[in-house]
Amino acid sequence: MTLTTFEKNRNAVNLLWRQNIRNAREISQITGVPLRSCERYVSSLKKNGKIIVHQSSGRPRKLTPRKRRHIGKIVKRNHFTTAGEMKEEKNSELEVSERTIRRELKNLGFASVLPRRVPLLTQKSKREPIGVGQ
């Protein structure tokens, strides 16, 4: 079984830790592992004496990075496109629910906003000319 890059990074940090190199910045410069990852590994080594790996379910993501970019492009092309319209688009490869599309739009930094409600005109305001009463 081959090691993943994460496992290689953890092994490299562990090796340097055992060689008594305790500075995350120094470990990062030597190994090329991102500084934030080194800081997290060093913190875990200080607390527990080992690097703790958090388990994930292993379930694949519904939206690939390519499909995420596709959603972003659709919105940039037309800001008024709804999640339902994106899902129903003919040549779209999006085979996910509207809720998933909305969640991804939020993650991309787009906001879904309902139009402001404007009260209907009263009979009095229909008779008065604009600007009167202010």
Write the layout of secondary structure elements.
Layout: H1 5-18, H2 24-31, H3 35-48, H4 65-77, H5 83-88, H6 98-107, H7 123-127
What structural category characterises the helix and strand content? mainly alpha
Counted beta strands? 0
Largest sheet: none
Helix-strand string: HHHHHHH
H/I helix tally: 7
Mean pLDDT: 86
Q: Quote the beta fraction.
A: under 5%
How would the global form be characterised?
elongated
| Helix proportion range | 40-55%
CA-atom Rg in angstroms:
27 Å
- Contiguous low-pLDDT stretches (5 residues minimum) are none
Straight-line distance between termini = 78 Å
Account of the protein in words:
With 134 residues, the chain is mostly helical. It is 52% helix and 0% strand. It contains 7 helices and no strands. It is elongated and about 85 Å long. The mean pLDDT is 86.
Summed up, what is this model?
This protein is mostly helical and about 130 residues long. The chain has 7 helices and no strands.
